[in-house]
Amino acid sequence: MLICSSLDEVKRRESALRFIANLLKGKERSSLYDLSGLAGGFPVKESDLPLLETYSGPAIFSTHLQEEGKKHLGGDKVAAFNRTSAAILATILALVKPGEEVLHYLPELPSHPAIPRSVKLQGATYRETDNLQDFKLTPKTSLVVITGSTMDHRVLPLEDFHRIINISQEQQVPVLVDDASGARIRTVIYQQPRALDMGADLVVTSTDKLMNGPRAGLMAGKTPLINIITEKAQQFGLEAQPPVIAGIVRALEDFTPQNLLNSLERRDHVYTLLLEVMGGVEKTPTGFMISAATLQKEITPEGEERSPRELATLMAMVLLKEHHLVTIPAVGMPGVSTTIRLDLSAADARRLDDSQIINAIRESLGRVKEI
Amino acid sequence: MLICSSLDEVKRRESALRFIANLLKGKERSSLYDLSGLAGGFPVKESDLPLLETYSGPAIFSTHLQEEGKKHLGGDKVAAFNRTSAAILATILALVKPGEEVLHYLPELPSHPAIPRSVKLQGATYRETDNLQDFKLTPKTSLVVITGSTMDHRVLPLEDFHRIINISQEQQVPVLVDDASGARIRTVIYQQPRALDMGADLVVTSTDKLMNGPRAGLMAGKTPLINIITEKAQQFGLEAQPPVIAGIVRALEDFTPQNLLNSLERRDHVYTLLLEVMGGVEKTPTGFMISAATLQKEITPEGEERSPRELATLMAMVLLKEHHLVTIPAVGMPGVSTTIRLDLSAADARRLDDSQIINAIRESLGRVKEI
Description:
2 copies of one chain form a homodimer. Chain A is of the alpha/beta class. The first copy, chain A, has helices spanning 6-24, 48-52, 56-73, 84-95, 114-121, 158-170, 182-189, 223-236, 242-254, 257-277, 292-299, 308-323, 328-331, 354-370, and strands at residues 33-34, 77-81, 101-105, 125-129, 141-147, 175-178, 202-206, 217-221, 282-284, 287-290, 325-326, 340-343. In chain A, β5 (141-147), α6 (158-170) and β6 form a beta-alpha-beta unit. In chain A, α1 (6-24) runs parallel beside α12 (308-323). The first copy, chain A, is globular. Chains A, B: Pfam families: Cys_Met_Meta_PP, UPF0425_C.
């Protein structure tokens, strides 16, 4: 199999999807292990489905959402959005007027593009900094955003958190904490307080990051703010829909901080063992990855007969077809990343033991070398 | 039970939701009849759930979405959005620059607020008209929107449709048809062609209107336009999430034009019979309604001991508890409309025969008179 065009890539993806669809026929979900880290859980129960088919079902799940959401994030009131980016857009539209300013503090530049993009759309100005010296509000600042932890799980020190919230409170400017993964990383792993417990006015988190929920944004905070943000969201179609709300509720009910701690400990352990199988394997915040360049070095040290993309695709397809492990180079769209990532915080990782993971890598590596 | 405060309303709603939750325990969905018209279907199958729990499931449903969506709307490519309003926002952000103009033609003024609101957010200008004489593009017009049918199911005449599309095409301005309910009303009931088959560039429909799908927006049209709109949608978190896409796919598969025709015929028939039970009942586009004022005239012609809201609430609660019919005055939020609407295009209506509906109204009316 030579991957020389986008058409081959289309066929590769179709072949992978067909294999998975066949495997899942007859509900044999347990035969598949999705370690892509991008699955997004949808743990609604079969018994939830008939309820979702009525006007009242969503009303009942929305009530549960308030309870479970406040348990997770604190605050007075909760709202769910189609995505965290949608929650940020709704917040900026509700709290920032054209010509005003949003000031963004984060552990490391640059920002996720959703924040500057929404500010620009509203006709406001945007500044970002990762340096406390530069964190200065102006009379035009009407919203402060703090990123609690970056995509690489870099976390804002507690002291900086308090300082930024204090400065903003003194000037009566509301603070939104973008705690996409931070609402769990910061609290569970770094034992920091929840954003609202530190005095932030609003916090938003992604329910698919380090928890087994759908891709969506969950916001909590002060009731009057949540109310006006919700109104804006409904005007532009940004709020989470009932099936997604049901998924969020069930994911919040299932969330167990200890599982997250276990997956990080486990990552360190598996990583050490994997180094013996393959030198170039690298740690990620919640698992590990093998780049196509590493694969190439490992497999074809003498020549360059196969492209890195071809090798990564082969490896991912062997992992899928022989070990039922789903990774992105097998199922992603044409042109997708060629890095094989295995996420140990994925729900399916708990159904695999360490030796299964290591053997799958070792045997797949051997098979690709044969081919 | 006296409804004199919003607190009573909260209790009324909680009591209704509790009753429904108990009724549905053990999956007895068939014992409940949701005629609110606002349920929003979520007809995913139990066997879809394990698939939705993987990265690949959504990929598979997205492929089906292309097939089923194109069957329903025509066009080259399909995209799903969190709501029709979100689809309109994404389209305006993608196709209209600040300072340009959106011209909107509709069967009857005024527009749904989503369109002028999105145009304003983008810093463009907006004009709307329901008069062909006034439909004149300017050099700044970069998008024409046509509303195919209004919320009251008023439909644009075919001749006007063609004329507006021709004028816009001559000036190479793309046309988006907002066919929220029109994609079914216009084609199934008025036998007009699909919007894209008349030469429109884009069409968007609401998958919960006159079909048993989730609240969401389904768009179809020319590939390059769909691609740039999708990109904007993903930037701001406007695209439909995987569980909703699965719901749309199943609803499209289930959609049967004949059911819609039957429900309208049935509405006319049931309406005639209902007039004998209660004089003031009124037709709606897909069912009928009883206003609180009508109830008051019917029940307390001599005095005014009970408020219209109280009577409507009582009637809705009797319909729910004794006949298992869900209507909005029973389950809606505090302050919700006091009009009892029964939608015969709702999926559950097919499980009731005419006499059950008429008896439920007659007996509930009697019970409310007793109380």
